[in-house]
Queue: 2 jobs
Job 1
Amino acid sequence: MKFQPPKGTRDLLPGDARKLQQIIDVCRDVFEKYGFEPLITPAFESFELLSAKGGLGEAVKDEIYYFKDKSNRELGLRFDLTMPLARVVSSISLSKPFKRYQIEKVWRYDNPAFLRFREFWQADIDVVGSSSLLADVECVVVTCEILDRLGFENYYIRVNNRKLLQEEFEKFLKTEEMLEVFRTIDKLEKIGLEGVEAELKQKKIDSKKILEILKISSLKDAPDNEGKNELEKFLNLAKTFGIEKRLKFDISLVRGLEYYTSIVFEINLGTKVSCGGGGRYDNLIKMIGGQDIPATGISLGLDRILEVMKENKMFKEEKSGTKVFVANVNSSVIDNAIKIVQELRKNRISAQMDLMERNFSKQLEYASNLDIPYVIIIGPEEIKRNKFKLKNMKTGEQRELTLQKIISLLK
Amino acid sequence: MKFQPPKGTRDLLPGDARKLQQIIDVCRDVFEKYGFEPLITPAFESFELLSAKGGLGEAVKDEIYYFKDKSNRELGLRFDLTMPLARVVSSISLSKPFKRYQIEKVWRYDNPAFLRFREFWQADIDVVGSSSLLADVECVVVTCEILDRLGFENYYIRVNNRKLLQEEFEKFLKTEEMLEVFRTIDKLEKIGLEGVEAELKQKKIDSKKILEILKISSLKDAPDNEGKNELEKFLNLAKTFGIEKRLKFDISLVRGLEYYTSIVFEINLGTKVSCGGGGRYDNLIKMIGGQDIPATGISLGLDRILEVMKENKMFKEEKSGTKVFVANVNSSVIDNAIKIVQELRKNRISAQMDLMERNFSKQLEYASNLDIPYVIIIGPEEIKRNKFKLKNMKTGEQRELTLQKIISLLK
């Protein structure tokens, strides 16, 4: 056990890698059905971009993998897929709306904990160029369709309009105070109202103001201000799409990243931890030097979805993706085994043959260890008769069939 | 144009990202048909692993992205997918043969040049645990099937057995000299016989020895030693698989990495640059502290395959993956447009609707800019009659049809 994956990272062995791939396939399929187009960007970005105002803020260096290349360029592994998108959109001109998806790894130098990794997969969609609430709703609709397809039943999506809080807070908070208050409220689900109160006290917010903040953050209905209009329009559109029952209004939802400007959402699978979220970020592209382009998007945390699905046994358990193993009774029939395994593969059947020059019983043992459901047995007799034994490894049942019959059976 | 991708890296915009995805899909499909299972490993590894004997050798620090995390752990972005596989296999016990595939990015701090990037995609398969030549051949068979499926016609795979050279060189070279000579011969295709001669002189190899080296490296047929047996067995198996016409024996092929022990291959698409290769590395897993496990594998360079395919116009050109755009004649019918676009998506048709609150002609313009092949036109009249105009954007032809008809037509 000499070498391990670096702290906070992990290997996905075939069982888990196949499961993650299934999730990725569903995401991609749904994204593409909604007209989102793929984008691929480098794993690392210039530190200047990563530390630009709007993202993780000044503390970014503590939260990312930072390094210099051999020409002393300051770089860092990307902490999300939004900053790279904003970079691309700010530097080239694309037809609007630009609907892009990206399913790749991101890295954060966080303290590893339950369901918190330093390397993790995100599946993002964003609509760039549209200020219409239809774009925000579509992102949530896509998310619901993915979660439905994956088999989740009790998930919900918390929704808020940051403007609701902002407009109320503006009545008694200074602009400098606002961001600090937002950062604290973001932790409400984690630390509770008492925790928020304590942290705001520590931040030297006036106690009368704290009382008011706590009152507003606990409202069950949206206060009557401009943000409410937007939120209602959003909810009406959600109704037309038939996803309204999945939404839960939560005025305390603000989300950590500074770049969000209005509608924000967070996905909850019924567990304590969120498995993604997003919202509208109308200023980010301009902030990093691009044009004034509105944008909205959502990000799914695939590692967490994977773990919750495993926990709830939502996957069919398969040790191997192979459908059939072609076993030879001895080495004199290798050439025939090759021909047969290739014929199976030509017919799109996942097949393996012995690559170890092992005896027959060892071959069966391997197929059984890997839970390969079928074995075809090839020997000199079978070749003469042009019929082969097909063994069902679960039931033990054996039938002698022509290769054509076997192929049509396995297909 | 403030922020750019870091030097040596690039963004793949939707057109190219879709093309790369097509290549990845073909690789995955073929890999899985041959019973290879996916593995996913972290983007970075401990520097101790990356610098272990057998891989890039002592110079590794100059050739990788090296960094320390905040606890001063020495890390580096992986330079290939073989060292991570060797790490996994050396630390856990898996049924043998372990047939794994991995399609991910790797990074090398190389001088960027034509078709040479610092971040690039590799698609690897390896068979771990088998010392049979069947395993080596299967890797090449898989490669040929992928290249066939992608539409390549004039590709070939250079093959050699390192042992051929080794056995001949052992007759007159010292062990210390051997590795240096191998490194130089590896460049033969690039720098020619004269270049090899010059470099060997520079390395202070005796001029009589150089003459002998050049003679052996130019042999058209394998010299009569033990390596020849293996090579012939390999070629016979290749014949049984029907890929012998794709193979070119090349005694000068050694490949740069130290870990190769016998059969090596390199893929040539008919261009000057190689787009991948591999071979047998029976000692690597033991060298990094694992058991004595033989292994062989092949690696495809997907960025190069992508660029060669683009160059040769081997892709269907598509600006968008969207099949149909649902255009509304005015905002009064948005709800109907939503219902229709969702119905299309439910039928697995990639569809978009207006997310910009634009007027009708601007919507058509967007669909046309993206080369979306069909537009469905929704207006109050159409809704009343329950028939909608389906416009073929290429021919301009318009037909009025029920949604059901449209769906079965577009499917």
Job 2
Amino acid sequence: MTDPLPHTLRSDAMDNRERILDAARALFSTQGLNVPMREIARRAGVGPATLYRRFPTKQMLVTEAFADQMRACRAIVDEGCVDPDPWRGLCLVIEKICELHARDRGFTEAFMSAFPGVTDIAAGREYTLKSVAGLAHRAKEAGRLRPDFVLDDLILMLMANKGIHATTTTTRVMASRRFAGFVIQAFQASDQHSPLPPTAWPASAEAEEGGG
Amino acid sequence: MTDPLPHTLRSDAMDNRERILDAARALFSTQGLNVPMREIARRAGVGPATLYRRFPTKQMLVTEAFADQMRACRAIVDEGCVDPDPWRGLCLVIEKICELHARDRGFTEAFMSAFPGVTDIAAGREYTLKSVAGLAHRAKEAGRLRPDFVLDDLILMLMANKGIHATTTTTRVMASRRFAGFVIQAFQASDQHSPLPPTAWPASAEAEEGGG
């Protein structure tokens, strides 16, 4: 009551930050990470100076925009990895990661792209892939995951999941859930399987093989 | 030899037509069907007047740009439908359609969108879906296609196939082939299957059910 002005300012500043992050997420999701900073400022309804004061670099903006999603992603793989049944853990990871990405297509963009300098996301991706590799290894040993699965197949399915369009997020998430159900069936070990066409990224499959 | 000028003109006109169609396919593939006509003219290196003389409407341009792909698509479903083994026929359709779409992402855009007035593509899509519905029905009766498959699952997989990105067409086609392999495993009837999450488009699934 004695100090309304600073309070208002702080609150405005907070609003600006959220407005910028919302605008960034919306634009990253439709136009990719290369959308110009000035377009993000325009959409957020702030001046470029305000944008740059809050987020001096695009890298910082990308990192902040997807900090929650990256945390959620790490939590999902952790949850999958502690499951004593590695196949059930892997299924949980596939279902939840597909849904997370379906809710925010900009996050897939950030997660998949090697956007230079966004070290938090690169570290999160590395953590995710390393954890899933361990889980997949155990699920194969348990005879539940098909032996010809390679880690790039998960990336392939995340790209594919991003292709699913719908007029609303609710419908997209629903479609993505059904898609994840199909992915799980496709990854499941079975006597009925025909051999798969080779992976498109054989170099990384070999590296994976060599790394155990 | 006696009439070199008309020949040259005809040849230029032919070049223009091909240049416009190439430009249109390239832009439709990256920016969707709503890309402005003037941008297509600019990329083709022709004036707007030349573009509109050849293709008075966007609809005519879309139809012409994807006439070959639409013919190929119809030929693929015809080939699948005449196979005495409906499941083998359906697998062939999935593999070849995924590859066709991986080679030209603009075609997926045209095939999926209900771009108004492009009657040839709408007719081609209807033909494709109707043929595949018949094939799927027979593959279910033969016990090879999972009974909870609905036609929208094919659309879902075509959308997903479009999400697969790669730096070259060759790599994208390769990735898409592996993807199609997974789709076939996922669609195959099996005792090991868990129930799938419901389809995101229940209305059309019901219509399909009702239509036999």
